[in-house]
Amino acid sequence: MSDYFPVDCSATLERIGLLAKAARLEQGIRQLDVVSRLGVPEKVVRRIERGDPSVSVKSLMLVLWNLGLMERVFRSFEDSPISFTELKEDTTGRRVRRLRSKAEDF
């Protein structure tokens, strides 16, 4: 089950990767330039552009930010009726605990 990754998620990451590559090329930036600006390994930049799901969120966000794609990729958050500030305040400090297994569950 740990290898499971939904097709929709994979397709979204591939689209984001293609968008990042297109933006980089349009701006005339080499992969090595992104590497030197952000300090992420070149193989990570290549994996992001391929839509590889094993890339860390931190690296993905840094590359999107560096290429000026944050607003474009996350534009739907602006249209959301949810107040993220209120949501953050409502969930701060709250924890969810797993229910203990009962003997009959085994």
Structure description:
With 106 residues, this protein is an all-alpha fold. It is built from six helices and no strands. The chain is extended and about 60 Å long. It has helices at residues 7-26, 31-38, 42-50, 57-66, 70-73, 84-91. Helix 1 (7-26) crosses helix 3 (42-50).
In short:
With 106 residues, this protein is an all-alpha fold.
Number of strands: 0
Strand content: under 5%
Low-confidence stretches: none
Largest sheet: none
The share of residues in helices is 55-70%
Order of helices and strands: HHHHHH
Defining traits:
single chain; 106 residues; mainly alpha; 6 helices
Detail the topology: elements first, then pairings.
Layout: H1 7-26, H2 31-38, H3 42-50, H4 57-66, H5 70-73, H6 84-91
